[in-house]
């Protein structure tokens, strides 16, 4: 199998082939996604929410991210793996940003890092890229800044914010980012961004006029029971499926039906 690289991802945009991306946090799920043909696996700091149960993504540590990322990388043969730098490991200090990215690359063998923000974090982006580490940008709804914005509502609906986002996308491209995630912004603005930069734009809640799509695996598989935003398409209802299977197992144990004579030594 041919491994996905940043060059292949760029060629996909140039050829009009959409890029598929999903989050993964552990070996077993990453193995399935890789085998299915997913182009990019994102070890997202959404692990703070879906794996650890925190309300925001702020508490997760670099050590936590490295544990998840190393587990994912051990499973993959083809997919490109990108890892979120967590809150507090890259903002405001580009040397610390580079040190964080280097720890990810050395201790996990992942292929790139992702960081939230535009102009504010440009120094960090440039320093990481200058060390040979590919960087994926992330604009629009940036969950690490939730305390600044106060809500998870759609972003860049106002002209000034839309202009800043367009400008940030160009700055990230010029700094050398190989792709950018756009989260929860109007489809018309996402289209404008995808048309005004050469690099792949990957959307979540950003409409169809972008170069690829990303979803959180728990959302795509219906494990997150009550999370049903407009942008989400669910491909399974795993919460109910796993609950039903669990109840069947409980029933069989209580009824002394499991194990039977063939299920013992
Ligand atoms: O952490 C994450 O899951 C993400 C995606 C929503 C893009 O950053
Ligand atoms: Na993230």
Number of domains: 2
Q: Summarize the biggest pleated sheet.
A: 8 strands, parallel, barrel
Unreliable stretches, pLDDT < 50, 5 or more residues?
Answer: none
- Judged by helices, strands and strand pairing, the structural class is alpha/beta
Strand content: 5-15%
- Name of the CATH class of the largest domain: Alpha Beta
The CATH topology of the largest domain turns out to be: TIM Barrel
Tell me, rounded to a whole number, the average pLDDT: 98
The separation of the N and C termini measures 41 Å
Number of helices: 11
CATH superfamily of the largest domain: Phosphoenolpyruvate-binding domains
**Largest sheet, spatial ordering of strands:** 1-2-3-4-5-6-7-8
Radius of gyration: 20 Å
- Helix-strand pattern, N to C? HEHEHHEHEHEHHEHEEHH
Number of strands: 8
- Residues in helices, as a percent range: 40-55%
Small ligands present = 3-methyl-2-oxobutanoic acid, sodium ion
Organism: Chitinophaga oryziterrae
Enzyme class: transferase
Subunit structure: Homodecamer; pentamer of dimers.
Keywords: Cytoplasm, Magnesium, Metal-binding, Methyltransferase, Pantothenate biosynthesis, Transferase
């Amino acid at each position: 199998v041919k491994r996905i690289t940043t060059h292949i991802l760029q060629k996909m945009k140039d050829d009009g082939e959409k890029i598929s991306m999903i989050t993964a946090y552990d070996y077993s799920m990453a193995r399935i996604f890789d085998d299915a043909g997913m182009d990019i696996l994102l070890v997202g700091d959404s692990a703070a929410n879906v794996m650890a149960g925190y309300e925001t993504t702020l508490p997760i540590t670099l050590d936590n991210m490295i544990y998840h990322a190393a587990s994912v990388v051990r499973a993959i043969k083809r997919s490109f793996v990108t890892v979120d730098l967590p809150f507090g490991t890259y903002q405001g200090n580009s040397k610390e940003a580079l040190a964080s990215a280097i720890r990810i690359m050395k201790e996990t063998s992942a292929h790139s890092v992702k960081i939230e923000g535009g102009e504010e974090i440009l120094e960090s982006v440039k320093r990481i890229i200058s060390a040979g580490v590919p960087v994926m940008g992330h604009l629009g709804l940036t969950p690490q800044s939730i305390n600044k914005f106060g809500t998870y509502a759609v972003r860049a609906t106002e002209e000034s914010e839309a202009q800043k986002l367009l400008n940030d996308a160009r700055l990230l491209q010029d700094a050398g980012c190989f792709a950018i995630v756009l989260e929860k912004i109007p489809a018309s603005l996402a289209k404008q961004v995808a048309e005004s930069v050469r690099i792949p734009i990957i959307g979540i809640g950003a409409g169809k006029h972008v170069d690829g799509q990303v979803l959180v695996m728990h959302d795509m598989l219906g494990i997150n029971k009550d999370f049903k935003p407009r942008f989400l398409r669910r491909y399974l209802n795993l919460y109910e499926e796993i609950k039903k299977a669990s109840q069947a197992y409980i029933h069989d144990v209580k009824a002394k039906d499991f194990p039977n004579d063939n299920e013992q030594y």
